């Protein structure tokens, strides 16, 4: 199979997925990464990271007028997070389904939040809510050179390439 056939098509997109400090502290990193791997999405970036206050505020800038904003920022900087970029067709919406509803009590069993969390303020994981926000967040959390340009060799077994 020629390498050009392995290139993800134009329908592909990227999502910024982050395991929040509670997910790291509770030892859920492997389980969460595994769910995206098993689905078939491609991991393009991955790092353990201690979030500075200003980055947490910028990431959630759309929510800065909300009453829970100070607690949210405090939560995000409270310990290391795992920053990831996942790529594939429809990855943004699909990741939101894998993650589940913001309030974990409303999240379906089988989703990450449905399986592992109880309250919104400790809901274990973040996923971009649109492709445009995905790109905005990837640019915020990753520097040039931190992402890896590669395609899984199994891609033709996951996508109809
Ligand atoms: N959040 C919270 N209380 C709320 C709503 C949201 O603590 O009443 C937190 C929660 O951790 C959530 C994050 O703020 O994941 C961002 O909120 P958003 O509405 O964007 O939810 P998400 O896209 O993460 O599901």
Topology summary:
Blueprint: E1 12-19, H1 21-25, H2 29-39, E2 42-49, H3 53-59, H4 69-76, E3 81-89, H5 91-99, H6 112-116, E4 125-127, H7 131-141, H8 155-158
Antiparallel strand pairs: 1-3, 1-4, 2-3
Bound molecules: uridine-5'-diphosphate.
Uridine-5'-diphosphate (UDP) binds at residues 63, 68, 72, 102, 120-121, 123, 126, 129.
Protein architecture, described:
The protein is of the alpha+beta class and 161 residues long. 37% of the residues lie in helices and 17% in strands. The chain has 8 helices and 4 strands; from the N terminus they run E-H-H-E-H-H-E-H-H-E-H-H. Strands 2-3-1-4 form a 4-stranded antiparallel beta sheet. It is globular. The N terminus is likely disordered.
Q: Quick one: how many beta strands? A: 4
Q: Strands of the largest sheet, in order across it?
A: 2-3-1-4
| Biggest sheet descriptor | 4 strands, antiparallel
Strand content: 15-25%
Give helix and strand order, one letter per element, not per position.
EHHEHHEHHEHH
Cα separation of the termini: 10 Å
Organism: Marchantia polymorpha
GO molecular function: ATP binding; nucleoside diphosphate kinase activity
EC number: 2.7.4.6
Enzyme class: transferase
């Amino acid at each position: 199979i020629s390498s050009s056939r392995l290139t993800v098509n134009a329908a592909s997109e990227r999502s910024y997925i982050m395991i929040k400090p509670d997910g790291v502290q509770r030892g859920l990193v492997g389980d969460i990464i595994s769910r995206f791997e098993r689905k078939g999405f491609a991991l393009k970036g991955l790092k353990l990271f201690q979030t500075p206050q200003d980055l947490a505020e910028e990431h959630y800038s759309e929510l800065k007028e909300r009453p829970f904003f100070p607690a949210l920022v405090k939560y995000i900087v409270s310990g290391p997070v795992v920053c990831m970029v996942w790529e594939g067709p429809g990855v943004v919406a699909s990741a939101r389904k894998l993650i589940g509803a913001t309030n974990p009590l409303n999240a379906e069993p089988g989703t990450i939040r449905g399986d592992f969390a109880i309250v919104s303020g400790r809901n274990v994981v973040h996923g971009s809510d649109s492709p445009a926000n995905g790109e905005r967040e990837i640019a915020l959390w990753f520097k040039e050179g931190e992402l890896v340009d590669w395609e899984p060799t199994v891609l033709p077994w996951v996508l109809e390439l």
